[in-house]
From TrEMBL:
Domain of life, per lineage: Bacteria
Necessary cofactors: K(+); Mg(2+)
Quaternary data: Homotetramer.
Organism: Rhizobium tubonense
Cited Pfam families: Carb_kinase, YjeF_N
EC number(s) on file: 4.2.1.136, 5.1.99.6
Residue ranges constituting the YjeF C-terminal domain according to the UniProt record: 224-491
Protein name: Bifunctional NAD(P)H-hydrate repair enzyme
Stretches that traverse the bilayer: none
């Protein structure tokens, strides 16, 4: 089944191929530019009817061509319009040259623009295809606009942002609104691009869906229920707790038990039929005094764990929250290679000296391992990938998932979930106040709870991240991890 265009994410390279294919099919490329420019003008008028002047900043390519069309449309609507150009517009080629020739407003050099109160800037300097730092004169202009607090409407992507990675290339506009065409790009969702785009509007300018979909590789999308809803286990009337899975969460020492309890409760609330905390002897008393719905079992050594694993109903484990870093964590993780394992926090860091030991243990068969690193933990397991600046966050997560034969949850404000087969989802529903101590422990438990119920590894990881964001929205600002657990709901 083909996805609606609104669900697709195309790289700038793929979108350029779409434009070329549309032109080769007989569609007027200048007609598409006209529609794009008019969409920008309409958005600017709709959002800023009080503007005293629209200032259109036009670049040396087709993004600038969109700007010249927008300037003409704004002028024809009766608005006050000024145009400033980067470089010599007389040197433009193709559709951009035609757009410039049809613009009745005499332009000035971009360096001459001085922001005035009442201005609204239409940024049509560079689009999503920018792959190098902006010129110094553009960087200075961005600084002047930011200092003057002039609102910006960006065409395709705020100039200075990389459409593939969302990174700032030297300097970038902060837009109130961004108008893009046909589909979004990864840079619209990845940070800091998402924040700098402001409100994003996607306009259909008339390229047939079949052409767009033919160039959508389909491996990268936004993390929404549409991506994993079909994998959610059905709720049957005739069921029992073991059919909904048994999740085990390993506890830390007597002074570090809280993380495991939050993880365990999150797994229970996410729908696992049973949840047990596996605890050392020294932590048994603390855990016993604070547990009700969650069960408790003493597991002191690797021998204890292996004996318990003879119970095949123990399907899914969470190891890491508050557990402690070291040999015991490694031994326990490696004892679980035939089960589903969510490895988080201390569990991840325990393998920093020899990540291959972990990856090799889970290399065969179906994907059973979920890794949930934040930025620092990611660098401990994948140091060469982490420092490769040429890769976007999505590409780093994809490379890590393939190497580890694991579902990767590369955490952050723009968490990326990746599978070994190249699929990747960018999460966008997490509020900023989720960045609090214990939030990651809750996430690990949610993913574990979904895995225990039988969801495939990648889908469970993606659904868990989305549920985590949903719980954060429900809990509201000022939440603690305990508050967050209380707002976790099953799918």
């Amino acid at each position: 089944m083909t996805r609606p265009l609104c669900e697709l994410l195309l790289t700038p390279e793929d979108m350029a191929a779409v434009d070329q294919a549309a032109a080769e099919s007989g569609i007027s490329s200048f007609g598409l530019m006209e529609k794009a420019g008019h969409a920008v003008a309409a958005a600017a008028l709709r959002h800023f009817p009080e503007a005293l002047r629209f200032v259109v900043l036009c670049g040396p390519g087709n993004n600038g061509g969109d700007g010249y069309v927008a300037a003409r449309a704004l002028w024809e609507s009766g608005a006050a319009v000024s145009v400033f150009s980067l470089g010599k517009p007389q040197a433009l080629k193709g559709d951009a040259a035609r757009a410039f020739a049809s613009c009745p407003i005499p332009g000035q050099d971009i360096a001459a623009y001085a922001p005035l109160s009442g201005d609204v800037v239409v940024d049509a300097i560079f689009g999503a295809g920018l792959a190098r730092p902006v010129p110094e004169e553009v960087a200075r202009l961005i600084g002047r606009v930011y200092k003057a607090n002039v609102p910006v409407v960006a065409v395709d992507l705020p100039s200075g942002l990389d459409g593939l990675s969302g990174r700032i290339l030297g300097a970038a506009f902060t837009a109130a609104y961004t108008v893009t065409f046909m589909t979004r790009k990864p840079g619209h969702l990845l940070m800091p691009g998402r924040e700098l785009c402001g409100t994003l509007e996607v306009f259909d300018i008339g390229i047939p869906a079949r052409i767009v979909q033919a160039h959508a590789k389909g491996q990268v999308a936004e993390n929404t229920p549409a991506q994993w809803q079909a994998s959610v286990p059905a709720s049957l009337i005739e069921t029992h707790k073991y059919k909904r899975g048994h999740l085990v969460v390993f506890s830390g020492s007597a002074t570090a038990t809280g993380a495991a309890r939050m993880s365990a409760m999150a797994g229970l609330r996410a729908g696992a039929g049973l949840v047990t905390i596996a605890s050392s002897q020294e932590a048994m008393g603390v855990n016993a005094n604070l547990l009700t719905a969650v069960m408790l079992r003493q597991i002191e050594t690797e021998k204890d764990l292996n004996a318990w694993l003879e119970d095949k109903r123990l399907t899914t484990f969470v190891l890491g929250p508050g557990f402690g870093i070291g040999k015991k964590a490694r031994k326990f993780a490696l004892a679980l290679t035939n089960r589903h394992l969510v490895l988080d926090a201390d569990g991840i860091t325990s393998f920093r000296e020899d990540p291959a030991q972990l990856f090799d243990a889970f290399a065969e068969g179906a994907t059973r391992l979920v890794l949930t690193p934040h930025e620092g933990e990611f660098a401990r397991l994948f140091p060469d990938i982490a420092v490769n600046y040429s890769l976007s966050k999505v590409q780093k997560a994809q490379a890590a998932a393939k190497r580890a034969h694991a579902a990767i949850v590369y955490k952050g404000a723009d968490s990326v979930i990746a599978a070994p087969d190249g699929r990747a989802l960018i999460n966008t529903n997490a509020p900023s106040w989720l960045a609090t101590a214990g939030s990651g422990d809750v996430l690990a438990g949610i993913i574990g709870g979904l895995l225990a119920q039988g969801m495939p590894t990648f889908e469970a990881a993606a659904a868990g991240v989305w549920l985590h964001g949903k719980a954060g929205q429900s809990a509201g600002k000022g939440l603690t991890a305990e508050d967050l657990v209380a707002h976790v709901r099953p799918l």
